[in-house]
Amino acid sequence: MTLSPAQRQTLTWIALATLAALALWLLAPVLTPFVVAAVLAYALHPLVELLAGRRWPRVLAVLLVEGVALLLLVSVLLLIVPVMAKELPLLKAQVPVLLDRLNATVNPLLARFGVDFTLDVASIKAWLTQLMDANMDDWLSAALASARIGGSVLLSLLGNAILVPVVLFYLLMDWPQLVARVQGLVPPRAREAVHGFFADCDAVLGQYLRGQILVMVALAAYYATALALVGFDLALPIGVFTGLAVAIPYVGFGLGLALALLAALLQFASLGGVLLVAGIYALGQLLESFVLTPRLVGERIGLGPLAVIFALMAFGQLFGFVGVLVALPASAVALVALRRALVAYRASRLFTG
Question: Residue 32, exposed/middle/buried by CB under 10 A (0-12, 13-18, 19+)?
Fold first, then answer.
């Protein structure tokens, strides 16, 4: 069977794409910091180009933009530190009282149903006290033991934390040249179509980033305000942290919820106060999932509310947590490709007959 030139060309592109996908799959652990740095570089390079266009030395513009971005990231993470510094001593003092109250409340309720249950408060108190009284040497020993068991994971995390900023710096420095090199690899006959496609993707992804920032700011304001209205002492740090952490789907919200419930338990020392804080977070999750994200992100990239929900669920099912992270930007790029495919289909003989 003799293949036509067009068929040979198609098979060649399929083989190249397969080899590229195989290489990406095999090198996935090594490529992780480079992919993270590339995503950050894509988001930050417009600021660098803006400063460079105003005759700033490029190295100074890159250092300023990357430094501010890293400072903001560290600031968000440090919002947890004062919360934990305040709550852990209170938790140590309140745990025995809370356990006694829980035992006194649960036992009569279960006794009504004929269940003989007694919470071993003394053992739980002793275990928690031992856990919280552990000194730094104990924590360090445990960390080192963990490192010996899973040292590759620990070293990988530390290596990525150092490598990502370094890779980001070089990507931002060479971004225009890298883009030009990639464009130069596209066959001349396809450059116009490919350039148009990536220009549309760039516009859609820009809308996605701006929409996501609006969602984060709106939720930070909501949580801080709502928690302050119910008399929550740590409304500002926990509310702002939760709002900004929603950029990491589910994990950010879950961490903020855990911190808020812990602080509410210690402050209010009652089920009513804890349920009130939990209700604020439940309403915030509904607000994010069904109003803010579909309206501020979905509509900006051309996805309706149902499409946004479906994309999050589908990518999460297929690729897990990473799929949830990339669901909306990947859907935006797929939407651009679908629109172009529909235009080509309507202009084809298959549609026109």
Answer: middle
Residue reference for tokens 């934990």: 84
**Distance from C-alpha of 175 to C-alpha of 185, rounded to nearest angstrom:** 16
Rounded Cα gap, residues 244 and 256, in angstroms: 10
CA 231 to CA 72: how far, in whole Å? Answer: 28
8 A C-beta contact, residue 225 and residue 215: no
pLDDT digits (tens, 9 = 90+) for 162-221: 888 999 999 999 999 998 888 887 878 877 877 887 888 888 777 777 788 888 899 999
Contacts of 91 (CB under 8 A, 6+ apart): 132, 262, 266
* Separation in Å, CA 169 to CA 35, 56, 155, 189, 280: 13, 16, 22, 34, 40
Encoded tokens for 103 = 């035992």
The pTM score is 0.63
